[in-house]
Write a structure and sequence with these properties.
Layout lengths: L6 E4 L9 H16 L3 E4 L13 H12 L26 H9 L3 E4 L3 H13 L23 H9 L5 E4 L6 E6 L3 E6 L7 E3 L7 H11 L4 E5 L6 H11 L5 E5 L2 E2 L11 H5 L8 E2 L5 E2 L2 H4 L3 H9 L14 H7 L10 E2 L2 H13 L3 H11 L6 H11 L6 H7 L1 H4 L7 H7 L4 H14 L5 H15 L3 H13 L7 H8 L1 H16 L1
Parallel strand pairs: 1-2, 8-9, 10-13
Antiparallel strand pairs: 3-4, 4-7, 5-6, 11-12
Helix pairs in contact: 1-11, 6-7, 10-12, 13-14, 18-22, 19-21, 20-22
Bound molecules: glutamic acid.
Length: 504
C-alpha cells in the first residue's frame, strides 16, 4: 500500500440512474476509505454533454444517501479540493492538454467528422473494419504532426475546430500492477491516439479523470472492470505529466444469475428483480424499479452487494456497513465475475427483517400503512407473521386475515378437508372454545388437546378446519396464537360465518 493518505473517489457520469454495479463500486471505495482512515470523495464526471441526463446527478446522490454511503467531500458537501463537478472545473483542463502538446506528447488534429467518417469507410472497403487514429495512420491525417507549423498556427488563429490527441508512443510495453488483477501488460501499438480535449472546449473523460485524480490527490482508483482497457492510457498520461500514478484496482463484473453475460440495465425488470437502488423514471415515463421501493432495507441491499465479488474469508454473512468497513480489504476481492443471485438477495432481506425487534417492525409497519392501527396490535401481528414475512408490506398481505375477516376460503383445503360431518365437528369445538378462559394460547391449546383425545382424533383432522374457518387459509402461524389474537367473540363469529358459507 502506498504511503500517502488514502483518498478514494467514486466518479459517476450523470448519464442515467446508478446501476447496482455502480453502487458496489461506490461501496467498495467507501469501505476501503473507512478501513484505512481515508477520505471518500464523490466526483461527478459530466464532461460529455451529449450524454447528460437531467435528474441523473440528483438520483445518484439520493441513492447513495439511501444506501448509507456518505462522502466526506463532494457536491453539496464541500471540501478543499472542489468543485467536485467537472463541468464546474471546465477552465482548468485546457492548459494541461496544451502542456502535453508543447512537450510533443500530444498534438492538434483538425480532421472534421466527415473526413474521419470518409477515412473509416475507405478502410472498411479495403477490408479493415476497425480503422483507428493511431501511430501509423496519424501520418496520413490533418494534424500538427503532418502540417507545416505556419499552417497549424494559421488554422488555430482562424479558430478552426480541433481536438487534442494523445501521441501514443510506438511499440512500448506498458506495465502496471492492479491490486486485484495483478500485472497488466499492454503494448502501445494496440492503443489508439485517444482524444484528450474536444472541439467543444471540454476535456474528454480520460484527461479530466487523470487531472482531477491528481489534483484531488487520489491514492487508489477503485472502479469497474470496464475501465481496465483505459488504464494503460491513464498510466501513460500520469507518466507524461510526471505525476505519481495512483494504485489501480479494477473490480469484477456483475453477471446475470445464469452467469451468461454482464448484468445490464435492461435485465432487471425482465428477469424479475431490480437492478437499480431506487426507482427511476425515464423522460419517456418508463419506470425501472428500485430496491428501496420494493421494500428492501438499505442494510440488506448493501450487505448483499458487498458479497458480490468480495468475501470476508469466514462464514459470517451478516454485516452492517460499519462491520464491513472493519474487515474490508482489496485482496479479498475476486478477479472472476460475480453472479447476481436474486434468491440470496431476498434471503439477506429476510435476515435483516428477523433481526429487527417486533416493536421496530411494528413502527415501520405503522409508518408504511396509511391506516391508524394500534401499535400494540401491530406488534402482535408482527410477532405472529415474522417468520413468514420478507418485506414490511408482507405483514398485512400475508396477515390480512388478522385485520379483516376472510372473504374466501382456500379451495384446496376445502376440497381436501371440508366433509359432510365437518360442520358438526366444528360446532362441538366451538362449544368447547366458548368455555375457554382466559382466552390465551395456553388455555386454547389445552382445550384443543382435550378435544382431540375425547374425540379420538388426530391434529390433522381438526386443526386445518379450525384454521380454514377462522382465516380462510390452509397454512399459517400457530392457530392458538391467531385465535388468542382475534379474541373469543371474533373467533366464534368467524367460525359461524365460515360454516354458513361452506355449507351453502
Ligand atoms: N466517469 C466514469 C464512470 O462513469 C468513472 C470511471 C473511473 O472511475 O475512472 O464510471
Amino acid at each position: 500500500m502506498s504511503e500517502k493518505p488514502v483518498r478514494v473517489r467514486f466518479a459517476p457520469s450523470p448519464t442515467g440512474p446508478l446501476h447496482m454495479g455502480g453502487v458496489r463500486t461506490a461501496l467498495y471505495n467507501y469501505l476501503f476509505a473507512k478501513k484505512n482512515n481515508g477520505t471518500f470523495i464523490i466526483r461527478i464526471e459530466d464532461t460529455d454533454q451529449t450524454r447528460f441526463v437531467p435528474g441523473a446527478q440528483e438520483y445518484i446522490l439520493d441513492a447513495l444517501n439511501w444506501c448509507g454511503i456518505h462522502a466526506t467531500e463532494g457536491p453539496g458537501i464541500g471540501g478543499n479540493f472542489g468543485p467536485y463537478v467537472q463541468s464546474e472545473r471546465k477552465e482548468l483542463y485546457r492548459p494541461y492538454a496544451e502542456q502535453l502538446v508543447n512537450e510533443e506528447k500530444a498534438y492538434f488534429a483538425f480532421d472534421t467528422a466527415e473526413e474521419l467518417d470518409a477515412m473509416r469507410d475507405r478502410a472498411k472497403q479495403m477490408g479493415m473494419p476497425n480503422w483507428q487514429y493511431n501511430h501509423v495512420t496519424r501520418s496520413g491525417m490533418r494534424n500538427s504532426l503532418t502540417l507545416p507549423q505556419d499552417q497549424v498556427d494559421q488554422l488555430l488563429a482562424n479558430g478552426t475546430p480541433y481536438v487534442i490527441r494523445m501521441k501514443m508512443p510506438r511499440n512500448r510495453d506498458v506495465r502496471f500492477e492492479d491490486s486485484i488483477r495483478g500485472w497488466v501488460v499492454v503494448n502501445t501499438n494496440n492503443l489508439d491516439d485517444k482524444v484528450l480535449f474536444k472541439s467543444d472546449g471540454m476535456p474528454t473523460y480520460h484527461l479530466a479523470n487523470i487531472v482531477d485524480d491528481h489534483l484531488m490527490e487520489i491514492s487508489h482508483v477503485i472502479r469497474g472492470e470496464e475501465w481496465l482497457p483505459s488504464a494503460p492510457l491513464h498510466y501513460l498520461l500520469y507518466e507524461a505529466f510526471g505525476w505519481d500514478c495512483p494504485v489501480f484496482a479494477h473490480l469484477p463484473l456483475l453477471l446475470r444469475p445464469d452467469g451468461n453475460g454482464k448484468l445490464s440495465k435492461r435485465d432487471g425488470d425482465r428477469l424479475g428483480f431490480p437492478v437499480f437502488p431506487t426507482d427511476w423514471t425515464t423522460a419517456e415515463g418508463e419506470l425501472y424499479s428500485g430496491y428501496r421501493e420494493k421494500g428492501y432495507f438499505n442494510g440488506a441491499f448493501i450487505n448483499m452487494l458487498a458479497f458480490l465479488g468480495w468475501n470476508p474469508g469466514t462464514t459470517q454473512e451478516i454485516f452492517s456497513i460499519e462491520e464491513l468497513a472493519e474487515v474490508f480489504t482489496l485482496d479479498r476481492v475476486s478477479k472472476a465475475g460475480a453472479k447476481f443471485d436474486p434468491d440470496k438477495t431476498k434471503w439477506f432481506q429476510q435476515q435483516y427483517l428477523r433481526n429487527k425487534t417486533n416493536e421496530e417492525l411494528a413502527t415501520l409497519l405503522k409508518e408504511s400503512t396509511g391506516e391508524q392501527y394500534d401499535l400494540n396490535k401491530l406488534t402482535e401481528i408482527v410477532h405472529l407473521m415474522k417468520e413468514r414475512a420478507t418485506f414490511i408490506k408482507d405483514f398485512l398481505i400475508e396477515g390480512d386475515y388478522l385485520v379483516n375477516r376472510p372473504t374466501s376460503y382456500d379451495e384446496q383445503t376445502v376440497a381436501k378437508k371440508w366433509k359432510a360431518e365437518s360442520a358438526v365437528l366444528m360446532n362441538e369445538w366451538m362449544d368447547r372454545l366458548e368455555k375457554v378462559e382466559p382466552f390465551d394460547h395456553v388455555s386454547i391449546e389445552q382445550a384443543f388437546q382435550l378435544f382431540l383425545s375425547d374425540k379420538q382424533m388426530g391434529v390433522g383432522a381438526v386443526l386445518p378446519l379450525f384454521r380454514l374457518l377462522v382465516t380462510g387459509t390452509g397454512m399459517g402461524p400457530s392457530m392458538f396464537d391467531i385465535a388468542a389474537f382475534l379474541g373469543k367473540e371474533e373467533c366464534l363469529g368467524r367460525m359461524n360465518k365460515g360454516i354458513e358459507v361452506l355449507n351453502a
